[in-house]
Design a protein that fits this description.
The chain is α/β, with parallel strands linked by helices. The chain folds into 2 domains: 3-124 and 198-280, Rossmann fold; 129-193, no CATH class. It is built from 10 helices and 8 strands. The radius of gyration is 18 Å and the shape is globular.
């Protein structure tokens, strides 16, 4: 798959489909593009061009632990730059969980470039913010404090990033533990600050400012509570919300497999929305 240099960062990406309106899909967490490939293929088969990419610090893209803004702000700007480079704007932008946060920030930071939003498993609430802040940031901060960058490189996530792109080891090692800890702490502060927002990363007023049609498939666990999706649908003026999953399990049992089994239903919801949005121009 191709790699593009975007804002000085090597971004691994794939385009599925050869013609039609552009759609971008991104997975949750720091998971790789493979997670949404099948969904992207379903949407492409209906006449869309689907961009999948590994965000920085994910998949086979560069690991760059740096930046003054939140990690998801940085991801949104990377995606905009990548799609500009590919001539893929305006586009429908979609994502799950962290990909959902990125899609919302894309629409806020680049409103003229978004045709619509496809959101699923929105993240909201203090439980989610504190749990994910530890998972994404605190665990690695503590690793660096105990064992320096060698310990960070041997963690499961960064070991996989190095295996996918070997130059990531030299980049991580060169930055040193103090700089790594400072950046991760800064990103953690952004994340925890979103605990009382309707969804992590965006305020009520910011969500009310989004004017593009938006389709939301509600979450069904404590990290992605249904109320977060319902709140999104109330605040974004042209939003609609759909439930495709029954209530899910507790905090530490996020049901990825169940969502995989409902992928056909999720694709059908999004395709129905896309056809209606296309008809409205």
């Amino acid at each position: 798959m191709p790699v593009a240099t975007v804002r000085g960062v090597a971004i691994h990406y794939q385009i599925v489909g050869e013609k039609g309106p552009w759609v971008s899909l991104s997975p949750g967490g720091r998971r790789a593009l493979e997670v949404v490939r099948s969904l992207g293929e379903r949407i492409a088969q209906a006449g869309y061009r689907v961009l999948l990419h590994d965000r920085r610090n994910c998949g086979a893209s560069d690991v760059i632990i740096d930046g003054d803004e939140s990690e998801y702000d940085i991801w949104a700007d990377d995606l905009h730059a990548l799609m500009t480079q590919l001539g893929a704007l305006p586009a429908y932008v979609g994502g799950a969980s962290s990909g959902c946060r990125m899609a919302i920030l894309f629409a806020l930071r680049h409103p003229q470039s978004a045709r619509g939003l496809l959101l699923w498993r929105a993240t909201g609430g203090r439980v989610a913010a504190e749990h994910l802040a530890r998972q994404y940031y605190t665990d690695y901060i503590e690793l660096a404090q105990r064992g320096g960058m060698a310990a960070v490189c041997e963690s499961e996530h960064f070991r996989e990033r190095i295996a996918a792109r070997p130059e990531n080891r030299a980049r991580l090692t060169a930055m040193g533990p103090q700089r790594f800890i400072a950046v991760m702490s800064h990103w953690r502060e952004y994340f925890i600050a979103g605990a009382d927002q309707p969804v992590i990363g965006a305020s009520d007023d910011e969500l009310r400012s989004i004017r593009v049609p938006t389709c939301i498939a509600s979450g069904n666990d404590h990290i992605h509570p249904r109320r977060a999706s319902e709140t999104l649908s109330r605040l974004i003026p042209r939003a609609e919300v759909r439930d495709i999953m029954p209530p899910g399990p507790d905090l530490d049992e996020i049901p990825f497999a169940e969502w995989d089994r409902r992928e056909g239903e999720l694709a059908a919801v999004f395709l129905d929305f896309l056809k209606r949005a296309d008809a409205l121009g």
